[in-house]
Structures are given as C-alpha cells and as structure tokens.
User: Fold these one by one.
Assistant:
Number 1:
Amino acid sequence: MELRLYDTLTREKRAFTPIDANNVRMYVCGPTVYDFAHIGNARPVIVFDVLFRLLRHIYGENHVTYVRNITDVDDKINDRALRDYPGLPLNEAIRKVTEKTADQFQADVKALGCLPPTVQPRATEFVLPRPDGKTDMVTLIKELIARGHAYEAGGEVLFDTQSMPDYGALSGRKLEDQQAGARVAVDAHKKHPTDFVLWKQSSPEEPGWDSPWGRGRPGWHIECSAMSAAYLGTMFDIHGGGLDLIFPHHENEIAQSRCAHGTHAMANYWMHNGFLQVEGEKMSKSLGNFLTIRELLTDWPGEVLRLNMLKTHYRSPIDWTLKGLEESYRIFREWHDLAVSIDKIDLETLSAYPKRPKFPLVVAALCDDLNSSMAIAEVHKLRNLMVHGSGDPTAFTDALRFLGLHHDNYSLVENLAEGKKREVEKLVAERTAARARKDFKESDRIRDELAAMGVVIKDSKEGTTWEIAR
Ligand SMILES: [Zn+2]
C-alpha cells in the first residue's frame, strides 16, 4: 500500500519514499516548557503520533526513529521562573519551572494515548560541544560563520539571509518584499530585516553558556537544527509541526541546517497541521476560552479528546466545541463497551476466524495523507460488521488499538477522568442523603441524572455502589 503525504515545501501530495527503509526518520518540534499545554498544542502531538504508528505499521516497530524535542531555554521560561520563584537563584528557578512543566506535558500526552517518541532531547543539553560528539548549537554556529552564512553584530550572532539564494522557499516569502514592509522595524545592526538571531548575550542574571562570542544563549531556531542532526543526521525524511511554525521557525531551521551542512534539503517532507479554534473563536487567555489539556482531562477520558481531534483531517482547521466532544463521547462509549466485550471472547472462538490483515481499509485511509476522518469512518464500518455478526471481531478492537483508542486491562470506571469520577461520587452521596431524609423525589431525580451520565446505581444492605452502564 502506497503512503502519500502532503509536503508544504513542494505544495503537493506525493508518494513517500524513505531515505533508508530500515530507519525512517521523523522530527517534530516539541513544547516550550513554561506553562500547561493547551488543546491546540495537543494537535501536532496526536497527529504525528498517528503518523508514527502508521510508519511503524508499514516499516516495522524498530525501523522508525521519532524525535520530539523539549525547549527548556527560552525568555518566556525565564519570565515565568522570576514570577513563580522570586526568592531562588534564576538557574534553580528555571530548572523547577522546566522540570515541573515537562512532567505535566508527558502525563498529559500519555493520557491522550500518544506513544513516547524514540528520543526526547532537551535543548539545554545541546548548547555546548558534547562528549559523545553529537551535533551541538555552538559548533553549528561556528560552521555557519566559517561558511560565510552568519556574522557577529551588536553583541549577537545573526544568520545572513541574503547569503542563501532560496531563503523563504517554504513560506513563499521573498527577501525583496520584506525589505520594504519591514523598514520601520529594522534593527540597526542587521544587514537585512529577515536576518535572525543564532546567539545572543546574556546579562549576569540570565542563563548563559560560555561561547566564542561571550557568555550567552542560543536563539530558538538553532535548537531544532542541532537536535535533529544529532539524532537523525544532516538529512532526514519528515519534519513536522503546526502551521504557525512555517515562518519563521521552520524557514530558519532549513536555512541553518542546509547552510551549515552544505545539503540541498533538511527534510524531504514538511508536514504541518492546521489551526484549532474553540467554539468558533481563536483561543486566547483574554477571551477566557483557553483550554488546557489538563482541564479537559478532568471532564473527559483522554481517548475522547483524541477521537475528537482525529475526526478532522490534520490539515483542516478544527473547531473544538462542547457539542463535538459530546458526540465523540457517545461514539467512544459505544465503541469501548463493544471492545471490552470482544476482549472477553475466548481464544478458541476467535481462532475460528481466518487469519488475514484485519483493518486494511483503516490503514489505506491513513496512507492517503493521514486521512484520519476516513479512518474513523472505516472503524464505524468494522463496528457495524461486528454488530451484524460477520467478520473477525478482533478486527474492530485491533483497529482501535492501532489508532490509540483502546488499551488492554482497561476499565471505563478506572479510566473515567478524575473530575467526572468526583462528580459521580458527589451525586451518589447527595442521593444517599436524600433517601435518608425520605426525599424520594430528589433521590429519583439524582438517579435519573446519573443515568443520563451512563452511571447505574445499585442499592443493597451494605450501601450504594455505582458502575458504568454496559
Ligand atoms: Zn523546531
């Protein structure tokens, strides 16, 4: 089955041919760890997790290397460290902020059913030359200066965009156009307004590393050029991220990597997921519609959030709505109950079904530029076949597992989001209190409310228990 992917650089969908089928290599820009990740941040994590699963399915589990970095040096992190830990030395405060936030991020994306990438390098470990000789930022910057692509000015090292004839190809921006438009904002020390920072000086209070250009810290873009080369080599197969990263971040990654290594490409396929809106509006803290993954997980199981994301093709914009989530919850509940009952079928019964590829149409849908909405439609079809008694029932559960929507040893009650669980327990306690004061109208009302949530109440001499309706 041929895998076809849309490449932002060439603006076409084309057949995917890996450089080395024994080691397919993918890099995705990871989080800057200073605050809880929001649901918009979850989109690339889920999208590229699906691609990672698909590549493993096609090329074999041990033949795909997926690198997703952690940006743990950034001025936003410094600001947060000063705000949250005013009494501590800055470096210590920064470590507290980045470690806490990185742990939160890992827990959040695990709850969304994402596999851990093969490697998750931290930027701060790739600033200076390393004992293992893996590519680092200082060496890359020295190489760029030596090859005439970077210069020192105003206490910074800058990339010279005019030194690269096709700078701007990914985003479709031309240097000439930007010259006029950016006239007002030009920094005096830059040769051209699009020249960007590779290295900047740090004040004694700011985090910094000793470099040939004084004590300072790297610009954001150089981090990804260093970490991708460190684990994937100077050219690799797929580079991914959100649409908002095309310019300037990915444009500048390409410029740095190609000019430092003298290569004609950094990655052969550039993939970008679309934007996410909430209830028809841009998500922002000021509008009060800022949804963190953490908050959503208190109301919904992670699989529901994942399913809700996968209903839309990754390149299309998503409108994240309560209505959509409720629909995803209904679908997931039904699928889940069916999957749990299938998991209980004995092996002898299952062995009667012929052995053959179980969900080829789900895979085929994903092979068409990761058409996850089509893949979901194919899962619905497998479910219908199941319900009508034809076909291998494990085709349905295996397809769910493949998409990260079903796990072994899984129980809906255990997996019910903490917030929902607390809500149920509170209602059960209120109902018990209503019964004790013989307010049966109220206790019936609460029972109905719980039933609407899919919860069944059982009263016995020992007390009241509850479970998820099957
Ligand atoms: Zn990046």
Number 2:
Amino acid sequence: MATVELSRLRRTLGRWYRVNGRHDLPWRTTRDPYAVLVSEVMLQQTQVSRVHPRYETWLKRWPTAESLAEATTGTVIREWAGLGYNRRAVNLQRAAREALEKFGGIPTEEAKLLTLPGVGPYTAAAVACFAGDKRTVALDTNIARVVARTLLGEATARVPHKQKLKEAAKAWLPKRGTRAHQLAAMDLGATVCKASSPACEICPLKSDCTWLAAGQPEADPTPNGKVTAAPFKSTARFARGQIVAILAKDSPLPASSIAAQLPEEHQENCGRYLEALAGDGIVTFRKEHWGLAEDL
Ligand code: SF4
C-alpha cells in the first residue's frame, strides 16, 4: 500500500480511536511496566471482561514487582484461581523476581524483557510499547487480523503470513504515537473487525480496506481438514487444573488422596500430572505429600 494511503489510514484510525477506544481499561491508564506486564500475562489466554476485576484485585494485593516477588508461590497460584494456565502465574512471579535481581525492576526494553520467564515476543513488545512508548510492533490477534484484512487483503492472520504481517504492521506504525496507534488497531479488531462477523458497514477503514474491496474472499481451507478438539474435561490440562484447585483448598496431601478426588478417567495418570506440575514449579513434594509450590 502506498505511503500516502497508509498515512490516511493511520489518521482515520486515530480519529475513530479518540471517540471509540476502550480508554477506561485500567491497564490503559498506567505506564507502570509491572502493571502492564501483569495485564498482558493475564490477557494471554483470558478474555478482557474476566481479566478486568482480577487485574484490579491483583494490583491491590501486590502493587509492585517487589511485593509479588516476596509472596509465596502457593499464594500467587491461589490468587490466580479461575484464570487458567497456572504456569502463567508462576512465570509472572519468576519474572518479577528475576527482573528485580537483574535489572532492579521490570524493564521496558524488549531485549531485556525477552530474558524473563514466560515473556515471549508479543508480551515483550506490548510492555515495551504500552509502558515504555517504544516504537515496536506488538502483533496481538486483533491487530494481526486488522492488518491482514486492511493492508494485505487476507481473511485471517494465519501463521504462514506471519512475516508479511509483521512487515505490513511495521510499515503502518506512525513515527510518533505508536502506543495509541496499536491500541486503536487492537480495539478496532476487538469491537468492529471481529473474526467471524466484521461490521464493515460501520468500520472507519472501509473505504481503504483491501479485503473488503476484494469481496471478502474466504481463507484457504485448512490443509489437513478440520481437527475436532477433545472435550475439555478429558484433557490433561483440565486434570492438572483440578489438582491445583484441590491443593489450593487442602494441602499437603498424599498422591492417593488427590487421585481419589479426580474424575475416574484421570485417576491413573495422577502421578504423571503431579510430576508435570512439579516440573512447571506449580506444586512441590515433601515427605510423601504434595502441596502448592513454597507451601510446604
Ligand atoms: S472494512 Fe471490514 S474487514 Fe476491513 S478492517 Fe473494517 S471491519 Fe475489518
């Protein structure tokens, strides 16, 4: 897309954002890298509406990286309950501890952020951009979809397009005001350019959207056909979550007591799940009993 069109798209998106952006999300009103990191880790696999109250409770309990670092891991896992993927909580605390040790606090430089546990390229870029105002591409699923459709004429932001997407998103970044620009694209993707039902008729970018102009062609079919997911309750992830919930209520417990509280189909694998959770630093074993990390 020509430079002049990109700059028109930027301006249009910016005007839309000033009126329609989700400016009141609590992690949007801070530039504290610790608070932004907490929000980004919570948002990795959990919806905004569920994260909102939990983020506020978390920051009341642990307002700084120092306070989180000092808590026991078991307490941190209990506070995380219901957000899913307990490893995120363990890694968040490890990141706080490591960042304090190595950098004296949560950094805003991407390279430093990437050295911390649980911080991948998107989270590092998001903290650098949203807390540090760094000019870097933070390609979350919403931004990626808007870039794919508007600039590349692709229905989805599927993996084969990753490099193309990154380049297009980078070319679209303004020289200044990267933070607002990317938050705007994120909000447009979350509220207007939705995955299955884009509201093109009210979209500020509709006159310049390549995908709309091309007649909204469908994405290529999945090469290996549709994969049917197993019911969640029969997955190892579900069983591991159950184990953490059991130990959060009552611990220490022997493996046999934990297994007895699991659904029948998971009981024989209880030992394997406990080992995996121990490997992730979520549970610990002492004197024939299991408990949440640092509880025993
Ligand atoms: S015109 Fe439609 S497809 Fe294009 S960015 Fe807007 S909502 Fe998305």
Number 3:
Amino acid sequence: MKANAAVFTEIGKDLTIEQIDIDDPRPNEVLVRTAACGVCHSDVHFAKGAILGPIPTVPGHEPAGIVEAVGADVTSVEVGDHVIACTSMFCGKCNQCLNGRPYLCMDRRQCQRKKGDTPRISLNGEKLTQFADLSAFSEKMLVHETAVVKIDKDIPLESAALVGCAVTTGVGAALNTAKVRPGSSVAVFGVGGIGISVIQGARIAGARQIIAIDLVPAKLETAKKFGATHTLLGGPDSPDGDPVKALKKLSGGGVDFAFDAVGVPQLSKQCFYALAPKGLAVIVGAIPTGQKLEVDPGHFYLEKSITGCFMGSNRFHIDALHYLDFYKQGRLDLDAMITDRMGLNDINKAFGLLDSGEITRAVITFE
Ligand SMILES: [Zn+2]
Ligand SMILES: [Zn+2]
C-alpha cells in the first residue's frame, strides 16, 4: 500500500514528501495509521549529520495512531485500538530483557526484518531504512508488535504521542534512571521537550527544589509552569553568572541530581561540578558523535557519579500507561508541552523551529 511520508536522503538537505510503499504486516507486525508524531531533537540531529545512521530513511519516532491491520500472531492489539509507539522494542529473551531492562535489548534484530528480505518500507523499489525501527513521519507505519502499546481512547492522540519519546525519556530519567528522592534538589540544563519532562518527573518524585537552566528567558518562564521552583539564565553574558556557582549557592552546597537534557559536553561537565557529595549527574541528551567529555577526577573523592540514560531507562509497556495515568490525574501536563502543530508538508519548518531552541514541542498531525 501507499502512504505519504517525509523522506530523508542526504545530510543537510531538506526532507521531501514522497509516496512510499508499505508492505503487508508479517505475523508479528502491526500496521498503524499515524495520527500525530512529535518532532524530536534526535530527528533534527540526524538530518544535520550529528547522529549517523543509514539513509535513505523516513525519520519520526514519537507517534500515536490507530491500528489498521495486525499480523496473524499479534495478540496485544487489534484493529481500531489506539496506540502509542516507542523505539524501545525488545526481543524478550536476551540477558538485558530478562533482567528487566528491555530498553537495552541486545537482540533488537528480532524486531526487524532480516537483511535481504522484502523491506517494510520502500520508495520506487528502493529500500528505505526505518528510522528507530518506526519511521513515523508517514501516514502509516508498519512496526514490530512490541513497539506499540494500547492506550485508552479518551486520551487525545497528539498529547499521547509525546509519551513515545520526550516524556518517556525525561520523566523516566528522573523516576527510573536517577530515582529522584522526595525532598531532593534537582538541576535541569535545557528545558525543551525533554527538559520539561525531567522537571515534571522530578516534581512527581517529590523533589523539594527544581532549578531550570536555559539560554532563552521565555523557556524559563515555561519551566516554572511545569514545576521548576527556581530558574537560571545560562550563557556567557548571563546576569546569573557561572551556573555551577549559582547552583551551589541556591542549593546550599550542590544539587543531589543534575540532568543534561541537551547533550553538550560543557553542560554535562557543569552538571557534574554542581553536584553535592554523593550526587548524580545524568546525561540525557545525545552528545554528538566524536565529542569528548572530560571531568576533574578529584570530584570522585566526593562519591559523585555520572551516568548515561537511554530513553529514560523505560519499560515502555508499563511506564507509558503509568505516565498516562499521571496525565489523567493532572499530575503530568502533556497538552501544554505542545507549542506548535503542523501538517506533514511543514516538516522542514518544524525541524527549523526545534533547532532554533525556542519551542517546547512541535507535533506533526495527520488528517
Ligand atoms: Zn526522540
Ligand atoms: Zn532482548
């Protein structure tokens, strides 16, 4: 079958809208009619060449939609179900999966078609690689069963879509990766979609102090609405001065948890240096390939730690439903995170907006 999709063929070039071919679902695959897909920094990084991967491809990995067809062996969803999809699909059999870390699945190939097999998606007979094994900037997606989770039909699909990446990553970074404790002090560098989600996660966890740091004053105002208790303006000319000193002062000696929601070595370093003894710095944003992170090892005497964070250490099939419960209870605000809505034809505009650093989340909506 055919579907309009945003195809990416060359680093630095705009995406083009093409009619792609989508194969029929195999036994463990699900065909979803995409309703909405958030635009994530990973999509933009990829299009700029900061994250490398096979092309041509269709980006997009933060979607929600309605199941249109299922393969013969699919049991978890049926036609008509509302679903969200996440790239954290899993085999269910490897050591990581069996240890309760399906987001680190070591045999993800089980969720893909074999090399040389008919591709799930193609353009004029040429294979398109599925970005994040999803390729969601497309009217339809053909994905592995474990990529999708059924959600209640009364949840707006464009809000639910954000749970596919930003919210799972950010809220999960606070609740799963860092395990923020009630009463702790937290710093969040960069308050776009991921940073706002970290703030909301820290608030849900009961953090006493949540300090947001960003270069854009308007985004700091936004951060307050989502739960930041304090804000600091970053950048060399900021009246707030050196963020490490400012954070130490505000927190009375250092924060318990610091999150780099952008993925810039300089910010990761500031996260580490701003910690209280025994504190934890969590690198949530993807640091571009080739860049290095250097820290003064003297800080390890204070038992400070740095950890990576992949997709909020999620168990998507459990976490996504928990986050949507928080949403229904008014404890997690998804609606206000969406600052811009546009159609698939405006995909390049959406990429530019996100890259400008001035918005929280843009969502591509489909008719
Ligand atoms: Zn993402
Ligand atoms: Zn696995």
